[in-house]
Queue: 2 jobs
Job 1
Amino acid sequence: MDTTLVLHGLEIVAFICVSLTLIMQLWSRNNEQAKINKRLPGGSFGLPLLGETLKYMASMKTSMPTFMAEHRQKYGEMFKSKLMGAFCIVTTKSDTIKWVLAHEGKQFVTGYPKSFRKVLGEYTALSLHGEQWKSTRRFLVNSLRVELLKERIPMIEQTVLENLNSWAIKGCVSIREETKTLAFNVVAQYLLGSRLKSGPVNDSLRNDFYVLTEGLFALPINFPGTNFRNALEARARILKTLEEDIVSKPRPAGDEDQYVDYMDYMRKENLPGTTDELLREKTRCHILGLLFAGHETAASAMLFAVKYIMDNPRVWNELRAEHDNIQVSKFEGGNLTWDDYKNMRFSQSVITETLRLANPVALLWREATEDVQLNGSLIPKGWKTVCAIREAHHDPEFFDHPHEFNPWRHQHEVLNPAKKPPLLAFGGGPRYCPGAELARAELCIFLHHLVTKFDLKACETEIVSFFPVPMFSNGLQVRVQERDPATKCSQKIMAY
Ligand code: HEM
């Protein structure tokens, strides 16, 4: 037989075999996918590439976001979706969310979207997992511990007073701007001592954090003019400022400095592969992450607390009575103490209710490290699990009239303990916010001086929205006046 003919025949056989194998593989993969799909909860992946991202963002930019509630109604408490470029299972029920958060490092690890990790950096706590995260976490918990916080109460009070005293002079203020400045100054001093107290470096850093926040959950399109690109550039400027304007300058005597402390600590931890250059980069990134996490969240909580107490005279009066009582109990207007803070019970409920309705963190992101079976549905390995805490905070099963601002619902003595509302404002499980107590203390001190010294009046009607963070259309413009002397108390107020 002609050898060319034989070779030709063999080629055809080989071609058929390869094609058959490919078809079989494709078929089995489709089969596998079909089996997985059957085990996924209901839901929709939305548009190709974009998924449901734009739909979610558009909903969060309104005053009454309905994306999650509508999906929950249609598909149940867990549903599949595609958000920020990732296939995900969204959970909206507090029990399920708590379970997911509690299994950090086991079935789940942190899984924030690409834009978030790129903008905040790979070395911030929320991007790290495994041993690197554990050692950073130990440092965080230690540096934000209660004993240290107690010592810093005078510093926080001083910073609050400096900020608030300028309000009355200005007359009409943007509460968003003012609370951003205040919260930034508190956390900057907490971390870096007096170096960042005020001035042009402080101003430029704060402005860069505005830009950075806008890009955190933007589509990761690295093109001039996009929010993502602007945020990356802001990040680079922040890191440069930290290195050149803060760290390289001599530390004032008596200042604490978490930058140096973190570097020393990580050097001692001696994680494999850590060069000196990498250590400096990690440290800058760590401080950037803390400055961000510590001020954007607390500022947002202060902003919304102001709005809610202004809109609810009964709350304002009860809050004022609580703080007037504390004030008259002090000798000649002495400074606030840790015990005073611990006595601000109604204020704590106001803060909790503010965070329930307008938590600065709407979604917590995890990634499944293995196939997880949850509530009868599958979360496939490698998929994101999105914990919708804002939605859980509006669950009518736990919160009557969930859209109403009602701080009294958190006063546990009047609650049936079995129905204690599930609060996830500071997360849960091993990643529970290490700055929660600092944030609460700062907010309480802020409320104390606000309601005891000033009367507030809204300047205009503003529209609220919740993306990328909760905010008001004009930053909440408020007319601030010294408190009417007729309402000042000279005696302890007994009944409130
Ligand atoms: C009202 C204010 C605050 C709110 C609502 C808040 C909320 C949260 C939430 C929900 C988490 C968990 C994220 C997750 O599990 O994925 C978290 C983590 C974190 N928070 Fe806060 N936070 C606040 C204030 C602060 C402050 C003042 C600091 C520090 C100065 C801080 C530092 C951090 C850090 C470093 C983490 C990451 C912890 C880890 O990954 O182990 N936060 N925060």
Note: The first strand starts at residue 78 and ends at 83.
Job 2
Amino acid sequence: TSTPAQPEQILFEERHLRFISSLGKGNFGSVELCRYDPLGDNTGELVAVKKLQPNKKSTLEDFKKEVNILSIFECDYIVKYKGVCYSTGRLSMSLVMEYLPYGSLIGYLESYRHVNTRRMLLFASQICTGMEYLQTLRYVHRDLAARNILVANESGKADFLHLIFKYAPESINESRFSHKSDVWSFGVVLHELFCYCDTNYNPKRLYMQEIGHYVQSPSISMHLENILKNNWRLPAPLNCPPKVYCLMKQCWAYDFEERPCFSSLGKQIETIVQEERE
Ligand SMILES: COc1ccc(-c2cccc3nc(Nc4ccc(N5CCN(C)CC5)cc4)nn23)cc1
């Protein structure tokens, strides 16, 4: 049998990757803004470089898996993979991706507070399309959250990336993830959107208010599971159209089989957009 075709490994030479700034850190490693400038005249393109932490538990295998997965995705709503960079000295590997200048949805909503319902719904609809695409590839995201959603450009085309208060009940205590648990997380992202990612109303804070701030970490998930089982849900955001809150509640059906799929959510969002127009 022939060996599986290697994704086109576009090699970025480390010596031409000029560090500009740090874009963010996570348990995966760090992401830096760099200019790939082989001509050395600052005309090179800006790229987002995700450095793999070799010491972290994520291994070379994880890296190769991520490269293979990302390089297959062909979707307007998933960040574009450009290639890899193997640094000779430090034996580290980096993932090179397109750079999205507007940063995360959280940062965007904090600075552009005038974002109206229509634009929010546009974001929601685009996130839905991206999630539908992942589902066709049978890829479960597991970390859909506003912090992992990147805004691609002024037109508000939401891009998102892959990656506890976002989790569906079955994920919290059975670690079961599915497209339907991603739908639950999508409901939480909708909530963040319509709260403008306001830290006073972020999911963690609202859940902890209900559970009790005194509760310490290991038992938080048990308390979370209890309030969800007792049908408590995140409250409707200020000025949130009732139909949008109704969508969130559908995503938060305790029984994952009762949750809508992304294509149904997309259609319902389109309907609300039409009604908002009239
Ligand atoms: C968890 O941290 C990150 C950071 C960056 C990325 C990432 C991956 C793949 C492509 C990509 N494009 C951008 N753009 C971007 C632009 C601005 C900012 N911020 C500017 C303002 N600063 C205060 C915060 C960062 C962050 C990311 N970030 N980014 C993913 C996760």
Note: The first helix runs from residue 60 to 72.
